[in-house]
Design goal:
- There is one protein chain.
- The protein is of the alpha/beta class and 525 residues long.
- The chain contains 18 helices and 16 strands.
- The strands form 3 sheets. Strands 1-10-9-8-5-6-7 form a 7-stranded parallel beta sheet, with helices on both faces. Strands 11-12-16-13-14-15 form a 6-stranded mixed beta sheet, sandwiched between helices.
- A hairpin with a 4-residue loop joins β2 and β3.
- α2 (51-58) packs across α3 (90-101), α7 (209-218) crosses α9 and α12 packs across α15 (423-435).
- The longest helix is centred in the middle third of the chain and has 19 residues, at 341-359.
- The protein is globular and about 70 Å long.
- It starts with a strand and ends with a strand.
- This is Glycerate kinase.
- Residues 403-515 form the MOFRL domain.
- Keywords: ATP-binding, Kinase, Nucleotide-binding, Transferase.
- Its EC number is 2.7.1.31.
- It catalyses: (R)-glycerate + ATP = (2R)-3-phosphoglycerate + ADP + H(+).
Length: 525
């Protein structure tokens, strides 16, 4: 029986604290600065995918009958609810779940990053902390996002809870990015160190994330549907916050509630391909041989409901709704923006010039055929499966109002220097260079890139926003943009430039649905 998978519909407006730069009425003020609007849109977009609002949208409990509704499914609660979770956003998810369902919750175990409770407390986000005397036990581990002994202890506690359930019980599983490192449970006799060594060797030889996950699942007690199998015959509801492009449930945290479609032969093929089969530890050979001879074959997860409660696509849908409320014609370009930041920056630079020319009267006469062709070539090179470029340009051509083009995903940075930065700040700085190469006409342009987790690389900033004048203004301040980029030192640049005014600060958000990119185009006059 196939696993049930549902995706929650368009995000509703999340309740937010008043913004530092104005109250609710300021949103529609005609004189609001473009940068102010960009910042507001970013903060409101992140606010809509925080753990609390997402959990409240996903779960609906009738207190009188004890019926829990999760989308179109109903479950009877009568002090038979158990909870497990693993991931960077799971602390806030668990706090919201206990607030909503606490009267029926018997026991819970969650595995979260080391230091997360102290960080949340310091950031003042009390709503993301479990209450005193909570029934949920918290393990902190996976320092630096690497599996360790603390995470292993958490995983074994989660397995023990799951294995003790009956057909009358309901297991609520909370999953977010970082969950794989927080749920390490190798199948004995494989040790945690042996499993880590093997995955490091595969990664060093160029194995893809899909290939690594195939091996991880084969050697894990809980990944690849193992957790769901441990919980059988209990019903399982898995609420997933996706930090993976395309939201593949079998990839997020290595799919602990999704039956693996791979077998031992797939694993051996991967190991042969990278020349590692002969060097396998005896323990790994034992586990693979045991799985190959299992008369029951691969298990199914028919007792599981997997629901994606938060994703980049859902965040962009909310951003689009709010941008249109600000008076923009908004279009979502892609929720799968990937590739090197240099290529992504070039794409946004070309897009701004082509779209800006279309907005300039009369009727886009200033559009360069050469730049239009370059834009389409650059888009093709990025190989984005969901790119809506043609549709976006059609909207721009017909628009009589300012435009906001939206995208999201997770570009990558090729490190060359030892500076301080993150992919969002580096992307923004590179887009600024592209925008400043030649005049854009009578159109105000602003680009923003921000991480929804509030932390861009090893910095306190979530990202940055830029306008075409940045490079010229930086030169006037004695800052050479090219030198900062050569050293991957974007954060130092933005910290010094105009007193850090272009940096985005949200603090730790407690969520993560990758990055969002906003491109604003507003004709002057």
């Amino acid at each position: 029986m196939a696993v049930a998978l549902q995706v929650l519909p368009r995000l509703a407006r999340a309740p937010l604290r008043p913004l530092l730069w104005g109250g609710p009425g300021a949103r529609l003020a005609s004189g609001m600065a473009l940068a102010e609007q960009a910042r507001m849109l970013f903060e409101n977009t992140v606010g809509a995918v925080l753990p609390g609002p997402m959990m409240h949208r996903a779960l609906s409990l009738d207190p009188s009958s004890g019926h829990l509704k999760v989308r179109d499914r109903s479950f009877q609660l009568r002090q038979n609810l158990y909870l497990v979770g693993f991931g960077k956003a799971v602390l806030g998810m668990a706090a919201a779940a206990e607030e909503l369902l606490g009267q029926h919750l018997v026991q819970g175990v969650i595995s979260v990053p080391k230091g997360i409770r102290a960080a949340v407390e310091c950031s003042g986000k009390q709503e993301m902390l479990l209450k005193p005397h909570s029934r949920v036990q918290v393990f902190e581990g996976a320092e630096d996002n690497l599996p360790d002994r603390d995470a292993l202890r958490a995983a074994l506690a989660i397995r023990q809870l799951a294995e003790g359930l009956t057909a009358d019980d309901l297991l609520l599983v909370l999953i977010s990015g970082g969950g794989s490192a927080l749920l390490p449970a190798p199948i004995p006799p494989v040790t945690l160190e042996e499993k880590q060594t093997l995955t490091k060797l595969l990664a060093a030889r160029g194995a893809t994330i899909q290939e690594l996950n195939t091996i991880r699942k084969a050697l894990s007690q809980l990944k690849g549907g193992g957790l769901a199998q441990a919980a059988y015959p209990a019903q399982v509801v898995s609420l997933i916050l996706s930090d993976v492009v395309g939201d593949p449930v079998e990839v997020i945290a290595s799919g602990p509630t999704v039956a693996s479609v791979h077998n031992v032969q797939d694993c051996l093929h991967i190991l042969n391909h990278y020349g590692l089969r002969a060097a396998l530890p005896r323990s790994v050979k034992t586990v693979l041989a045991r799985a190959d001879s299992d008369p029951h074959g691969p298990h199914t997860c028919g007792h599981v409901l997997n629901v994606i409660i938060g994703s980049n696509a859902l965040a962009l849908a909310e951003a689009r709704r709010q941008a249109e409320a600000l008076g923009y014609r908004a279009v979502v370009l892609s929720a799968a923006m990937q590739g090197d930041v240099k290529s992504v920056a070039k794409f946004y630079g070309l897009l701004a010039r082509v779209a800006g020319a279309h907005l300039t009267p009369p009727g886009g006469a200033g559009v360069s055929v050469e730049e239009d062709q370059q834009l389409h070539e650059q888009a093709a090179a990025l190989q984005l499966p969901d790119l809506q470029l043609k549709e976006a340009l059609e909207v721009v051509k017909e628009a009589r109002v300012p435009i906001c083009l939206l995208a999201g995903g997770e570009p990558t940075v090729q490190l060359q220097g030892s500076g301080k930065g993150g992919r969002n700040q580096e992307l923004a700085l590179r887009v600024a260079v592209e925008l400043g190469q030649r005049p854009l006409g009578p159109v105000d342009v602003l680009f923003l890139s921000g991480g929804t987790d509030g932390r861009d690389g090893p910095t306190e900033a979530a990202g940055a926003w830029v306008m075409p004048e940045l490079a010229r203004q930086a030169t006037a301040e004695g800052l050479d943009v090219a030198t900062f980029l050569a050293h991957n030192d974007s954060h130092t640049f933005f910290h010094r430039f105009q007193g850090g005014a272009h940096l985005l600060y949200t603090g730790l958000t407690g969520t993560n649905v990758m990055d969002v990119h906003f491109l604003f185009l507003r004709p002057r006059g």
